[in-house]
């Protein structure tokens, strides 16, 4: 037992659902595309994706949905509690909180998406390369990954962002991505290392397939679940990072997002009385986070079938009147008892 | 032994990387806030301090880069991190060391508590999988996705402003000075309760979910079946067989997530005006106090590194396989 196998217990193991992207069976490319999204085909992932889709629609159609302009000031109605005119009340300047949240979705999703794509790209590049190569090249890439895992991300982001007077969205996303790619790279490296020695990869190599083809056609399809999960993970981290940066005022307030709303609320004495000003923004961050974790739970269960079946099996057993915690013994006892003495076949009391 | 040496080499490398990043950060930034500050405060800064600031911030341009790098290391070994602009030119190392105990006390205790509680709760839920205990999972997910600072603000709004049970900010009352007597200690605990509780609440979810998932996976292993077949008490199977194995990855992820925890709790200190490292970093950011910012990043990185080493050592003690594999 080496530590590698041990660590892989914590990381998803792709035992069951691997479908080597083979050429033999002639399938339409659509079927293959659909297959590579199989990890989203469960209740949790779909629920998460639906919530994400709602947020995405809100972000894209913000000007149509929002009842007011986010910065439109109405000095007749300052700090008003929610009413039919302002569904989520108004700020100290009479701005509509609901409109700010709707427009703020744009900032959050843009940065989350850009940072997620950048970080995932780096993670795949470094993780898969480190997993496929061997020797010192692999070790040094892995050491690089570990350094970025250990370095505290948020302080680094704060310091880098504060060096600029007016950091752009791209810069903020890039900095968040730089501090966020390492975890995905680590998991990808472990999985690639185990794939490298599987038969179908060996066969491809023996057939003389070029390296880029082995990696993109043979290996990547088997890594999609992990890549997706690391993408979702970095988006979560990016959303939290962005709102935190905005809240502490490192990001210019012209970039409207949920963190900026909380920044204004705190600066202008919203706490504790004007709850409509600060509660919705926080709940939106939490809801987005929950949606992303739901997607990831779904991927986890796809990758590790034990997670999926555990609750169902235990519930089924309890229905039969067996205790789930000592379930295995209970089932075996039914088999074993008649041999010892015929009187008590099912010794387990119901309930 | 080889395992230990490898880990040590890795940590030495990481420490070197952190220090080197710190060396290059100010050299990459545009403009030169340091000379502007020095020009404004001519005569107030001693020549010695100017010299070290120039080395730290790369203003000794005529020198070749490697020379600057060596000088920088020499300064670090002397413990000289420059002078803090926003704190009356006090040495950065002194400013940081006055804030460090507060952060280590608060964040350290809260993190360890959260890890212990979360792991215990998680192993129980994994054990009772499929029962009503599963309801904890969505609640834990919710708390783990709420941003730290927002939860802190809500907690202040409820328990400090509305109910008035706890003070809303600072580590101790305005009138008292730090001392080792009961009155002061009680005061510190009273002030620290809300921030600590918030950190525990916000980070608990991750530990619960991680442990629960590991338990569910481990409980399917054959050695659990064997343990149950032997007729061991469920309690013994839970603690000695299942939880003991499931906790190992938890400890590893504990080490890895320290960096994130530190980041989250920095903002916590801002919300609660707690006089720790995080508050210091954010104050330094707002007042563009670059020497203090650089020094803080270095100290925080090294602190996370030390915590990682401790977690690694604990892992090696708990899991004999890490030691055996090399032998």
Please summarize what this structure is.
The complex is a heterodimer of chains A (351) and B (327). Chain A has 15 helices and no strands.
Q: Which properties best describe this structure?
A:
heterodimer; A: 351 residues; mainly alpha; MetI-like fold; 15 helices; disordered N terminus; disordered C terminus; B: 327 residues; 13 helices; 76% helix
Question: What does this protein structure show overall?
Answer:
The complex is a heterodimer of chains A (351) and B (327). The relative contact order of chain A is 0.13. Chain A has one domain (22-324): MetI-like fold (Orthogonal Bundle). By secondary structure, chain A is mostly helical. Chain A has helices spanning 3-10, 29-35, 43-60, 62-65, 97-132, 136-150, 153-162, 169-180, 182-196, 199-206, 211-247, 258-267, 275-303, 305-319, 327-340. The two termini of chain A are 41 Å apart. Chain A is built from 15 helices and no strands. Mean pLDDT of chain A is 77; it is low at 1-22 and 327-351. Chain B is built from 13 helices and no strands. Chain B has a domain at 103-326: Orthogonal Bundle (MetI-like fold), CATH 1.10.3720.10. Chain B has helices at residues 2-28, 33-40, 47-57, 65-77, 92-127, 136-145, 148-162, 182-218, 222-229, 234-271, 277-286, 290-318, 320-324. With 327 residues, chain B is mainly alpha-helical. In chain B, helix 1 runs antiparallel to helix 12 and helix 10 (234-271) runs antiparallel to helix 12. The model of chain B has no long low-confidence stretch (mean pLDDT 79). The longest helix of chain B has 38 residues, at 234-271. Chain B is globular and about 80 Å long. Chains A and B meet through helix 1, helix 6, helix 7, helix 11 and helix 13 of A and helix 1, helix 6, helix 7, helix 8 and helix 9 of B.
């Amino acid at each position: 037992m080496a530590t590698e196998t041990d660590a892989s217990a914590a990381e998803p193991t792709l035992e069951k659902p691997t479908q080597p992207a083979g050429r033999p069976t002639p399938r339409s490319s659509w079927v293959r595309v659909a297959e590579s999204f199989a990890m989203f085909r469960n209740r949790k992932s779909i629920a998460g994706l639906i919530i994400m889709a709602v947020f995405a629609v809100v972000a894209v159609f913000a000007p149509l949905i929002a009842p007011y302009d986010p910065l439109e000031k109405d000095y007749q109605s300052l700090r008003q509690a929610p009413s039919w005119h302002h569904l989520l009340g108004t700020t100290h300047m009479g701005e509509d909180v609901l409109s700010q949240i709707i427009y703020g979705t744009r900032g959050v999703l843009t940065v989350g998406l850009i940072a997620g794509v950048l970080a995932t790209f780096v993670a795949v590049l470094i993780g898969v390369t480190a997993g496929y190569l061997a020797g010192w090249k692999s070790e040094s890439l892995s050491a690089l990954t570990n350094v970025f895992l250990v370095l505290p991300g948020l302080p680094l982001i704060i310091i880098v962002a504060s060096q600029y007077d007016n950091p752009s969205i791209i810069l903020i996303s890039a900095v968040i991505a730089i501090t966020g790619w390492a975890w995905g790279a680590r998991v990808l490296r472990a999985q690639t290392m185990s794939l490298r020695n599987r038969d179908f990869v060996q066969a491809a190599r023996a057939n003389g397939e070029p390296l880029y083809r082995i990696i993109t056609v043979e290996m990547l399809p088997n890594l999609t679940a992990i890549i997706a999960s690391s993408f979702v993970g970095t988006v979560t981290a990016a959303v939290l990072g962005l709102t935190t940066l905005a809240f502490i005022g490192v990001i210019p307030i012209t970039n409207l997002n949920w963190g900026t709303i909380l920044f204004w609320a705190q600066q202008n004495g919203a706490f504790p009385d004007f709850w409509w000003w600060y509660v919705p923004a926080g709940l939106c961050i939490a809801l987005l986070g929950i949606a992303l974790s739901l997607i990831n739970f779904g991927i986890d269960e796809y990758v590790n079938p034990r997670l999926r079946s555990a609750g169902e099996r235990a519930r089924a057993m309890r229905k039969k009147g067996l205790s789930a915690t000592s379930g295995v013994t209970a089932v075996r006892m039914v088999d074993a008892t008649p041999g010892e003495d015929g009187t008590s076949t099912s010794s387990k009391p119901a309930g | 032994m080889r395992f230990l040496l490898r880990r040590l080499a890795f940590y030495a490398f990481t420490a070197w990387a952190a220090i080197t990043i710190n060396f290059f950060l100010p050299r990459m930034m545009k403009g030169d806030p340091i000379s502007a500050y020095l020009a404004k405060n001519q005569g107030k800064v001693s020549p010695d301090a100017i010299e070290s600031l120039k080395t730290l911030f790369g203003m000794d341009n005529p020198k070749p880069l490697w020379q600057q790098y060596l000088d920088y290391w020499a300064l670090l070994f002397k413990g000289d991190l420059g002078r803090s602009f926003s704190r009356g030119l006090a040495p950065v190392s002194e400013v940081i060391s006055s804030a460090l105990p507060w952060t280590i006390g608060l964040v350290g205790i809260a993190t360890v508590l959260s890890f212990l509680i979360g792991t215990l709760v998680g192993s129980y839920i994994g054990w009772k999988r499929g029962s009503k205990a599963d309801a904890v999972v969505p609640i834990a997910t919710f708390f783990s996705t709420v941003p730290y600072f927002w939860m802190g603000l809500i907690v202040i709004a409820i328990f400090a402003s509305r109910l008035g049970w706890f003070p809303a900010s600072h580590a101790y009352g305005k009138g008292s000075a730090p001392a080792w007597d009961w009155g002061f200690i009680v005061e510190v605990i009273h002030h620290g309760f809300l921030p600590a509780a918030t950190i525990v609440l916000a980070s608990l979810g991750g530990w619960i979910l991680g442990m629960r998932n590991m338990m569910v996976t481990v409980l399917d292993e054959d050695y659990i079946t064997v343990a149950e077949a032997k007729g061991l008490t469920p309690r013994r199977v839970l603690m000695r067989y299942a939880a003991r194995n499931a906790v190992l990855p938890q400890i590893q992820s504990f080490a890895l997530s320290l960096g994130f925890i530190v980041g989250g709790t920095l903002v916590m200190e801002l919300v609660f005006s707690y006089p720790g490292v995080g508050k210091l970093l954010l104050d330094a950011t707002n007042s563009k106090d670059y020497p203090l910012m650089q020094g803080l990043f270095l100290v925080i990185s090294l602190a996370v590194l030390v915590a990682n080493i401790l977690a690694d050592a604990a892992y090696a003690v708990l899991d004999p396989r890490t030691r055996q594999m090399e032998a």
